[in-house]
Amino acid sequence: MEFSAYFPMWDKLTAAQQKRLADSITPQTAPKGTIVHNGSLDCVGLLLIQSGQLRSYILSDEGREVTLYRLFDRDLCLFSASCMMPSIQFDLVIEAEKDTGYWLIPTDVYKSIMEQSAPLANYTNEIMASRFSEVMWLIEQIMWKSLDKRVASFLLEEAAIEGTNLLKLTHETIANHLGTHREVISRMLKYFQNERMVRLTRGTVEIIAEDKLQELQKV
């Protein structure tokens, strides 16, 4: 499909703005595991995802990761264009969780059109507000929810994303998403297995009692 079919505000732009945007974009691919954006000094441009999945996370001085949010088909990634938002004071890493195809939009072109187009500016502000809400939700989870509830929520979310209860996840991957240590996740998953909520095999976590996980995250 064409870029115009994926860009929600396409019909709100003038013909001249549409041409400028269309002439500037470049299709890109990022194999699974590729770091697409790394820190505030890396201003690659905006990413409009055609297919695949990106993960946005921050990295502590000790090397621990925590996932802020994920991006899927038709999502627009703003934080890969950090130079457009000089007030951003934290370094964000964006990684391809799956083989991903996207269009790269030059920062200067997008910013110039946004300054001329109120609908595009409003759309951009809505994305910023949505990302802020996701980060605030994450902070609430870390501060107020116990780790067993966070792990249960993560497994259920992952099952919904993948469309299966057989999840190809290592304990280290889960730890990176949740901002904790692999050993802590291993102990928690062992507890889940003893309670007959999951079944563990090498490199996989199978949910065998979805109702129990749902009940746990609500308690």
Task: Please summarize what this structure is.
With 219 residues, the protein is an alpha+beta fold.
Integer average pLDDT: 92
Element string (H = helix, E = strand): HHEEEEEEEEHHHEHHEEH
**Count of DSSP E strands?**
11
- Number of alpha- plus pi-helical segments: 8
Gap from first CA to last CA: 44 Å
Structural class, please? Answer: alpha+beta
Name the beta content range.
15-25%
Shape: elongated
* Largest sheet features: 4 strands, antiparallel
Order of strands in the sheet with the most strands? 1-8-3-6
What Rg is obtained from the alpha carbons, in whole angstroms?
A: 19 Å
**Helix content range of the residues, please?**
40-55%
Residue windows where pLDDT falls under 50 for at least 5 positions: none
What does this structure look like?
The chain has 219 residues and is α+β, with helices and mostly antiparallel strands. 44% of the residues lie in helices and 23% in strands. A four-stranded antiparallel β-sheet has the order 1-8-3-6. The protein is elongated, with a radius of gyration of 19 Å.
